Every structure is written in structure tokens, then in C-alpha cells.
Amino acid sequence: MLTGSPIGVFDSGIGGLTVFRSIVERLPAYDYLYLGDNGRAPYGNRSFNTIHQYTWECVQWMFKQGCPLVILACNTASAKALRTIQRQDMPRSHADKRVLGVIRPTAEVIGTYTQTKKIGVLGTKGTVQSGSYLLEIARFFPHLEVFQQACPLWVPLIENGEYNKPGADYYVQLYLDQLMQQSAGIDTILLACTHYPLLQDKIKAHLPANIKVVAQGDIVAASLTDYLHRHPEMEQRLSKTGDRRFYTTMDDTPEFNSHASQFFGSEIISSFVDVREGC
Ligand code: DGL
Fold first, then answer.
1. Which residues are the active-site residues?
2. Is residue 260's pLDDT more than 60?
3. Which residue intervals of the chain bear CATH 3.40.50.1860?
4. Three-state SS annotation for the chain
5. Which CATH class is domain 7-101+218-272?
6. The pLDDT of residue 1 is above 60
7. What is the pLDDT of residue 68?
8. Would you state the CATH architecture of domain 104-215?
9. Which atom of ligand 1 is found nearest the CA of 11?
10. Atom of ligand 1 at shortest distance to CA of 123?
């Protein structure tokens, strides 16, 4: 166990660093522990049970390191594991801790971006099939029409460092066409996957200029700020020395460090961890 009570930020891999970066920019004083489950990523095509098991193992490991609050930066984990963790797992053993996801904070504000009341959601197969965005957005903006498109080849492109090469354009166009064919009136597209901000320039280049492309990092960071204001009992438990620690379940940490530094925007030195130990 580490000293301090950092905020835990979890992702299936390195993509969550795009969200983590926004959180750290907005709330720099806190201590943070980032965990990427790269050894078992991607989660996008896995079953509900597997995603729940992997996510819960990682969350428990972060609790053991002293995190009283964990953010699931991963959309797929938020869609498929968060509810079971909050309602079933935590009341049994960790009632004093909190786990928050990225879908609800996004759903709370996404309706303010659109004029036509038609938005597109791009995500992994798991996120799209879960229907979580449809349900959550309908709660806050019942008059919005939401069109979803799974983009299963985008994460592998990004993970393999091909996202800024010319070959990526074909796959960007492919899924954008499939989304836009669902409705001509879409004026806002949500990037509902941690990795997609790395394709943002290409995505914008393939769309008419009037279509807004929305990434989640700033939305999640603003929502966390608001949460900490509303929950002083949690805010006071968090340590504030500006410490950042990075962990991965991938044994090749130099590989993680090099990819992760691109996502995070500054140099990362990580440590390997086996989250199953003691679970
Ligand atoms: N982190 C995942 C998400 O945001 C994308 C990568 C994966 O499939 O594991 O949905």
C-alpha cells in the first residue's frame, strides 16, 4: 500500500490518459494514481461478465493502494461494470469508497451542444450494445434523438500507432459514413471512447465544418470538480501533494511508457502490477 489517499483513474489501457490529462489540468493539487489494464485490453469486444470481473479486480487493487475515490475513465467499463460495482459489489465490502464513471456526466451536458437535437455517439461495440448512452441521455434530454455507431477498428489503429498515418483515413471515413447515413440532421458527434480524441483531427477533417465533435476529457474534469464541491466529506479525505503514479498490468513497461506519454502529453514512467494478487 502507498502513502496518501490519491484519486484513482482507471482505464482498460492508455486511452484513459486523455481524460486523466484534463482532470490533472483542472485539479492539479490532488494526488493521483492511474491504472491501465493493458495486459487484458482491449475491453471493447468482451462480454459483460469479463468486463465486470476485470474492472472490479482493478478497482479493488486501487482501493488497496489507498484510493477512496476511483474514476472509471473507460466508457466500456462505465457502460458494462459500473452499475454492478456500485450496487452489488461496493455495499458489501467498500461502502465508504466511491466509484464514478464517464457516461452520466457526459449525458448530463451533451444536449447543450446540439441545435438540431440530433446527436451521434461513437464508441466501442460494448458501449454501443449496452445502450447506456441512449438510456442516460434520455433521462436528461428526453427530446434528443441519439444515433450510435460502433467503431471496432479505431482502438486497434490507435493502439498500434497508426492513427496519424494516411491508412487511418479510410477507417475514419467508413464509420463516419455509417453514422451520418442514419440521419442527415446530426450536428454533434460525441467521442464516447477514451481513445478517439487521438483521431479528432482526422474525424473533423472528414466532416462538414458545422458539425461539432465533442471529446469527454473536459466534461469529466468539470463534473469531478463539481462532485468534490458537493462532497466535502470525500474532498477532505484526498491527499494533496501533487503526486502522480502510473501503473499498468502490461509487463512491458517501456512500451507502455512510450505510448502512454503520447496520450498524456508528457513523460510517463510506470510500474507493472498484477491486480489479481490478493483479490
Ligand atoms: N477504454 C475503452 C473505452 O473507452 C476503449 C479501449 C478498449 O476497448 O478497451 O471504451
1. 74, 193
2. yes
3. 7-101+218-272, 104-215
4. CCCCCCEEEEECCCCCHHHHHHHHHHCCCCCEEEEECHHHCCCCCCCHHHHHHHHHHHHHHHHHCCCCEEEECCHHHHHHCHHHHHHHHHHHHCCCCEEECCHHHHHHHHCCCCCCCEEEEEECHHHHHHCHHHHHHHHHCCCCEEEEEECCCHHHHHHCCCCCCCHHHHHHHHHHHHHHCCCCCCCEEEECCCCHHHHHHHHHHCCCCCCEEECCHHHHHHHHHHHHHHCHHHHCCCCCCCCEEEEECCCCHHHHHHHHHHHHCCCCCEEECCCCCCC
5. alpha beta
6. no
7. 98
8. 3-Layer(aba) Sandwich (3.40)
9. 1
10. 10
